[in-house]
Amino acid sequence: MSSTPKSGTGHASRGGGPVEIPEVWIRFFVGILGLGLAFVAALFSTVSRESGNVWATVILSGIALLLATLVGLTTVPYLARRVMLERVRNAIDYDVTRPGIVYVLITLVIGIAALNTGNNLLYIIVASLIAAILASGVISAFMLRFLELDVRIPERVFAGRPIMGRILVRNLSRWCPSFSVRVVATKRNRKNHWVWEPYLFAWPLRRPPERQWFQLPDRRLRRVADPIAPGIMEKAVYFPFIGRVSEASIEMEMTFAKRGRYEEKSFGLSTRFPFAFLTKTRRLPIARELIVYPPVEPTDEFLHVLPLITGEFESFIRGRGNDLYRIRDAMPDDSARHVDWKATAKSGSLKVREFAREDERKLRIVFDNPAPQTIAEEDYERAVATAASLAWHFSNNDTELTFLAPRYDADFDMHHFLRYLALIEPQTGPSIVDTLQLTDVYNVVITARPRGSIPTPLWNSSYFVFFGNS
To answer: Roughly what angle, to the nearest 10 degrees, separates helices 377-395 and 300-317?
Structure first.
């Protein structure tokens, strides 16, 4: 039974087994065949025209045009994309170094002297100097061509905490080792786009508003630069030697001061070997994105708030249930059926058992995101860090955590909430405190609203952490 080959792949028999032919070669030969047939059809159309056969001329010329169009629409764009992809994959940037500039100037001076004097020895020296430049370019390009790069970064990173990343470089060449290679972050160009924005047209233009003749609402087109996320690599990583068919790796300590998104669109392998005339950088399309969580280190403010929250939370979860919460001294309103007679006999005073709710230790952290310009940027960052620290602290205890915030999908994953806090910015919208429902879950609300605007029923089941001018 014959099998159908996969799309874009041909098979040939060699040594008794199928050999795959790359799709690029199949398309190339099909294109050559189509252009050959189009050339033959055009040639015969010319012969038919000279012999006076009009219909044969029209048909053959139409076939030639149709074949050339098909090749131009199918094969040529594919081959062009392959060439462009290969150029992007092996794109090399050149930067002339200071020793390189001095070397070129010396070569020019000696070359001019050789032309003026006609001295054969000077010609030989100039030729040797130029040969050294060519040899440097060929050796460095050949050395970078067979290198592969891998950048490994931890997935969960907190602001202010050092992490260890790993840079790994492989040399695939069987003949040539690599010397003096650096891994660098490539330069990123800021992209611009045009936007329409409201504008007030006034005349005369340079007069103050109260002295202008008229003012009309208008719109204008303005060029705005797209924001660029900060990069991941701050400094280059140096590999002095990478042997043939081997790999080398370096662990790099990185610390990110602020929360947010960090990214690198591409990395580069750079070298000055062998003569440091040029710095060659081969750009590799390796993209990395890193979401840095807010800091969760205990600050003075967090240490001040935490005991208050814990005390309110503990008093909220006390109740009557099936699980023992603690044994304490009896109160006048306690029921006699909860008396612990063993503890009473040991201590000599009446002791009762206090039970916890069956749904105990349920905590919900609520982040009430304020509108822009509501509070200072420092206060906003402290609010985000407090929410992250509380989530981190209570997740390590025996507490069932839930989270609530504007435009946040209901999710019990603490890391999902930290990712949300890492990328959050002030936004305009209704306060989430107004939609907060009373449940059997205790709420810790981080908000910038004034104290007087908090609904009264929420005070019994919530603890509010105020920031800004609240």
So the answer is: 50
Distance CA 351, CA 15 (A): 91
Quote the crossing angle between the two packed helices 23-51 and 54-89, to the nearest 10°: 160
Most confident of 9-23, 112-126, 206-220, 239-253: 239-253
Instruction: Kindly tell me the sign of the dihedral angle through the C-alpha atoms of 462, 463, 467, 470.
Output: positive
> How many residues belong to the chain?
470
CA dihedral 393, 399, 405, 409 (to 10 degrees): 120
Q: Does domain 92-188+228-292 have CATH number 2.60.40.10?
A: yes
Residue 191 CB neighbour total at 10 angstroms? 9
User: Hey, how many other C-beta atoms are within 10 angstroms of the C-beta on 396?
Assistant: 8
Q: Are 91 and 283 in contact (CB under 8 A)?
A: yes
Rounded to an integer, the average pLDDT of 361-372 is: 87
Cα gap 274→278, rounded to integer Å: 9
DSSP string, 19-66: EEEPHHHHHHHHHHHHHHHHHHHHHHHHHHHHHT-HHHHHHHHHHHHH
Neighbours of 253 (CB within 10 A): 8
Q: Which amino acid is at 86?
A: E
Which strand (E) or helix (H) includes residue 316? helix 300-317
Gyration radius of the chain over CA positions: 37
The pLDDT mean for the chain works out to 80
CATH 2.30.29 matches 300-319+360-466:
no
Rounded to 5°, the CA angle 362-366-371 comes to: 175
Q: How far is residue 12's CA from residue 27's CA, in Å, rounded to a whole number? A: 16
Residue whose tokens read 């003075």: 300
One-letter amino acid at 278 equals L
Helix (H) or strand (E) holding 345: helix 341-347
- The closest of 271, 249, 238 to 167, measured between CA atoms, is 249
Q: Is the pTM of this model over 0.70?
A: no
- Gap between the Cα atoms of 134 and 128, Å rounded: 10
Give 13's DSSP letter: E
Residue tagged 């874009």 (tokens): 8
| Structural contact between residues 49 and 57, judged by C-beta atoms closer than 8 angstroms | yes
The tens digit of pLDDT for each residue in 386-436 reads: 999 988 888 877 678 889 888 888 667 888 999 999 999 998 888 888 888
> What pLDDT is recorded for position 90?
57
Residue 348 tokens read as 């000599």
- For the chain, the straight-line distance linking the first and the last C-alpha, in angstroms and rounded, comes to 80
Closest CA to 340 of 357, 358, 326, 360: 326
| Mean pLDDT across 349-370 | 74
* CB 89 within 8 Å of CB 267: no
